[in-house]
Amino acid sequence: MNYDVVVIGSGPGGYVAAIRCAQLGLKTAIIEKYNVLGGTCLNVGCIPSKALLDSSEHYHNAAHAFSEHGIELGNLKVNLTQMIKRKGEVVKSNNDGISYLMKKNKIDTYFGLGSFVNKNTIKVTDAEGKEQQIETKKTIIATGSKPTTLPFLPLDKKRIITSTEALSLTEIPKNMIIIGGGVIGLELGSVYARLGAKVQVIEYMDSIIPTMDRALGKELMRILKKSLKFEFFMSHKVTGATNEGEVVKVTAENPKGETVTFEGDYVLVSVGRKPYTEGLGLENAGVQMGERGMIAVNDHLETNVPGIFAIGDVVRGAMLAHKAEEEGVLVAEHIVGQKPHINYNLIPGVVYTWPEVAGVGFTEEQLKEQGRAYKSGSFPFKASGRAKASGDTDGFVKVLADKETDEILGVHMIGPRIADLIAEAVTAMEFRASAEDVARMSHAHPTYAEAMKEACLAATENRALHI
Ligand SMILES: NC(=O)c1ccc[n+]([C@@H]2O[C@H](COP(=O)([O-])OP(=O)(O)OC[C@H]3O[C@@H](n4cnc5c(N)ncnc54)[C@H](O)[C@@H]3O)[C@@H](O)[C@H]2O)c1
After folding, report:
1. Which residue numbers delimit the FAD/NAD(P)-binding domain (predicted)?
2. CATH 3.30.1360.70 correct for 355-459
3. What CA–CA distances, in Å, run from 406 to 341, 358, 377, 460, 466?
4. How large a percentage of the chain has pLDDT more than 70?
5. DSSP 106
6. 442 alpha carbon to ligand 1 midpoint, in Å?
7. What CA–CA distance (Å, rounded) separates 465 from 467?
């Protein structure tokens, strides 16, 4: 078969790229190594983790918050098998949705490992080892990433696990040790802490979610300690682990240089992810690698080989599904001669703990480092009528704006449903709104979104109305 474009990898970057290519009239095929579409995000990432986060949140609320609302429950218990089964059904219905989208857009799907024979020929090897070759004018590599491991801490995938195994446990851990206080560790730690596990987080840096605005990590840590009894061990360097059957012992060096030991029945290693390019045969097409295992690309996401592009987790930038999607669309439009653009500074980051955490634009630390004059306005959810009604009064919205022009430079939030609220900040910043612009917009009352307006009022002239 001959194609205009072949996409390798069917995660959010790859399948969206394929749809956009097809919409633009290009004859398109997509190759997927596993027998389902959707990649890490849909099968063992964003979607199943959200399903478990939602289920565990219901349980936690039933156990700890319902009585305050006047709802009495007896005999409350967790059916983990059902919870995991439901998660599987959520994933499956999304798998089916992507298959439908491929058919609707007349995109040919090949299941098997895609690898370059040369610049324009791609071999697909299926699970039985059967091979076929397809010809293409352009290729988009969207093969994603896989979990980083620690050399002294080999995974056994039973007791020492990554997020993939943590999404399908058959029992609730008694004591879960989490190595890495980033997004995965805190989201999956929340799932099991809500279901009753004692969770201990060992983090190398002095802050959790260290790449986000520091105020967010500080507030999240306070809340997770209070609401889910998380224990944090900051500035600790993990040095080893021994698997003793039912128990794993993890050793780490504390900030004083002393060795401390942790004992748990499960250890989740969540220290980041690395680009996945194994078996792609990049050398056969002459594609050059960049730093840290990434594929090197230019501003149009084209590799050193004209006509071969790479997007998402295999290239520089945040390892986020929505960033990969934007890149997929950009490449498709670039291929047909359009002039698309991505503002990488406005890719929001979200953590689906409860409360949720989100940020976009520059952090306060980055503005200080740039020496940029800025002003800051915050509004706490404890002053929000909507938050009081639902009982979600933890957290705040912080708006950073240019001191002279009042243009919004960064918005950082922690609070109820702010994973959705961050979209308002992205929209405002994409249109280069000032804090006063947003402060003068009517926000429905009572909503959590009013906190955004109030934080903008606070940033404008320190004139928040409800605090
Ligand atoms: N909600 C979301 O958008 C979401 C959810 C899950 C994953 N992801 C993405 O997946 C990727 C992987 O997530 P992650 O949580 O594994 O990575 P991460 O980069 O978010 O966090 C890793 C954490 O581990 C720490 N760390 C690194 N080495 C360590 C060591 N040896 N000992 C102790 N701590 C160590 C880091 O300082 C960091 O805090 C990220 O890029 C993330 O953005 C996103």
Report:
1. 3-328
2. no
3. 25, 21, 11, 7, 21
4. 100
5. T
6. 37
7. 6
- Write down the catalytic residue from 64, 69, 445, 466: 445
Ligand 1 pocket, Cβ-based, cut-off 6 angstroms = 150, 179-185, 187, 202-205, 210, 238, 270-273, 319-320, 350-352
- How far, CA to CA in Å, does 229 sit from each of 203, 232, 261? 16, 10, 19
State which of 145, 239, 271 you would mutate to test the pocket of ligand 1, scoring each by most atoms of that ligand within 8 A of its C-beta: 271
Q: Domain 2-147+274-344 classified CATH 3.60.20.30?
A: no
The residue whose two tokens read 């398109």 is 28
Query: May I ask the CATH architecture of the domain 160-271?
Result: 3-Layer(bba) Sandwich (3.50)
The reported pTM is: 0.96
Equal CATH topology for 2-147+274-344 and 355-459? no
- Spell out the domain ranges in the chain: 2-147+274-344, 160-271, 355-459
Q: What is the mean pLDDT of the chain?
A: 97
The ipTM value here is 0.95
Question: What are 298-326's pLDDT values in tens digits?
Answer: 999 999 999 999 999 999 999 999 999 99
